[in-house]
Specification:
Elements (H helix, E strand, L loop, with lengths): L4 H15 L9 H11 L10 H27 L34 H11 L4 E4 L13 E3 L20 E6 H4 L11 H4 L5 E3 L3 E6 L8 E5 L8 H8 L8 E2 L4 E4 L7 E6 H4 L4 H7 L3 E6 L8 E6 L14 E3 L5 H7 L1 E2 L4 E2 L4 E11 L2 E10 L7 E8 L5 E4 L15 E9 L7 E11 L8 E3 L2 E4 L1 E9 L3
Parallel strand pairs: 1-2, 1-3, 6-7, 6-9
Antiparallel strand pairs: 3-5, 4-5, 8-19, 9-11, 10-11, 12-13, 12-23, 14-15, 15-16, 16-19, 17-18, 17-20, 20-23, 21-22
Length: about 475
């Protein structure tokens, strides 16, 4: 009945103040002043014009009964779980834990309901996390304790990035992080809608086995790789995952071309960036875990990747296989027009490209499929050619270690090409390709096994003056 007392107090105060003068009141002085201010509010309405006063007077007489009715109905609907009361502005009894947890929500009042829930659903043992000081088994709950409960539970929930299949019941208190060694350890569950809410304070999750099973964890290395192999094995509960790492400000790797399940792990500052390159790559993924506070591991975010067809873009302009040197227009005139995909005499096939421009900076994004495991270092070429055929801007590079690539991977490379201040406005031609770093030898462009050239001429861009 606790939630009913505040409105009753206000109602009694209103009636008392309207029937007795202030000096008759037997309330303490500070209570009398409060009740009089609350109860005499309608009297201030008389200072307004008559038509406004009449309207507001009628309205004020209706407001209190309506609010009390709303309050009583909202409270009675909770029966018998009054301790979980929160009004609708706080999200109701199912959402108030996000504002107040600890003893404001779960006082251990829901474990009879949990035992009944287990019987009705035919559930076996559940994995239970709660902050209580008695054994729920006394109410018939069949459970395996999770931290912070007693027994041999570890201080940090194992496999917290990838909980094993099973039935979980997480109290609103521990879901909010109280009183855990790592308050964010149950963030995986926070990001899912529970399958059921028991007594409004115990959240039930049915965790199925992932299908298909994830096979990789790909991490961004800038400014630093978030998870060590040991931390990844502990957090994902597996030590057999492939773990490529790449500079996500320059490159993106789709292991197995995006056709297999896995996880991306990014430093949190990268995950929060509005960089269109990152937003586009992460769009099909789902944020599944986030650590916001620095601890033994710096803040990071985990995105779950489900098997997806990653389609390379359509070419925004020409694609020609070129060879030889000379003025750009002459080389392009004798170059053979081709269509992607374009195999190279190396471990990559060119799939397509995108071009973006901001002022005098051109960004080229190239797409490549890995056809075989590389056996030595290489780099990807990105040049902006002037009319004389010489590069005026160079953006060569590879944002992933060459020995981490495997056949079937899809590699996306971003090349930034800012024009130098002395470069004049006008037309410039993009070109790309690949070459071995030890010999600087370019990879020939192939068609049916025959070499067509050693570089790919792409679109022409117009660069404005400074």
């Amino acid at each position: 009945m606790l939630p009913i007392l505040p409105p009753l107090f206000i109602l009694v105060a209103h009636l008392a103040a309207s029937r007795f003068p202030p000096h008759v009141s037997r309330f303490p002085p500070h209570v009398s002043r409060f009740t009089l201010h609350v109860s005499r509010f309608p009297s201030h309405v008389s200072r307004f014009p008559s038509h406004v006063s009449r309207f507001t007077s009628h309205a004020s007489r209706l407001v209190l009964p309506l609010l009390l009715t709303w309050y009583f109905i909202g409270t009675l609907r909770l029966a018998p779980h009054y301790l979980a009361y929160f009004n609708e502005l706080a999200g109701g009894p199912d959402g108030g834990w996000r504002y107040l947890a600890d003893s404001n929500t779960d006082w251990g009042q829901g474990y009879k309901d949990l035992a009944r829930f287990q019987r009705e659903r035919g559930l076996g043992r559940v994995r239970l996390s709660a902050f209580i000081f008695y054994d729920p088994a006394i109410y018939g709950v069949d459970y395996e304790p999770l931290t912070p409960m007693g027994g041999d539970t570890p201080p940090i929930f194992p496999s917290r990035f990838n909980p094993p299949p099973g039935d979980y019941v997480i109290s609103a208190t521990t879901l909010d992080g109280i009183p855990l060694a790592d308050p964010e350890m149950y963030d995986w569950f926070r990001r899912r809608e529970p399958d059921a809410r028991i007594a409004h304070v115990l959240f039930y999750y049915r965790v199925p086995a992932p299908d298909p099973a994830p096979t990789w964890v790909a991490q961004c290395t800038v400014p630093m790789t978030p998870l060590t192999p040991e931390a990844a094995a502990e957090g994902f509960g597996r030590s057999d995952l492939r773990m490529p790492a790449f500079d996500c400000t320059r490159s993106w790797l789709y292991p197995d071309g995006g056709r297999s399940a896995g996880w991306y792990v990014l430093p949190r500052e990268r995950a929060l960036e509005a960089d269109p390159f990152l937003r586009q790559r992460l769009a099909p993924a789902r944020l599944s875990f986030e650590q916001k506070v620095p601890r033994a591991i710096p803040p990071f975010a985990i995105f779950t990747w489900s098997p997806t067809v990653v389609a390379p873009p359509e070419e925004p302009g020409e694609l020609r296989a070129a060879s030889g040197e000379g003025p750009t227009a002459q080389v392009a005139a004798r170059a053979l027009r081709i269509v992607a995909p374009v195999p190279l005499e190396g471990p990559l096939t060119f799939l397509g490209y995108e071009v973006a421009q901001e002022g005098r900076t051109v960004t080229l994004v190239t797409y490549w499929r890995v056809t075989e495991r590389p056996d030595r270092p290489f780099s990807l070429m990105a040049h902006l050619l002037g009319a004389d055929g010489r590069p005026v801007a160079v953006g060569d590079g590879l944002g992933i270690a060459w020995d981490q690539l495997q056949p079937g991977d899809l590699l996306v490379e971003r090349h930034r090409l800012p024009l130098p201040p002395e470069a004049p406005a006008g037309s410039y031609r993009l070109q790309t390709g690949a070459y071995w770093l030890d010999t600087m030898e370019r990879w020939p462009i192939l068609e049916e096994g025959e070499s067509l050239g050693d570089r790919l001429l792409l679109a022409t861009v117009e660069v404005p003056p400074r």
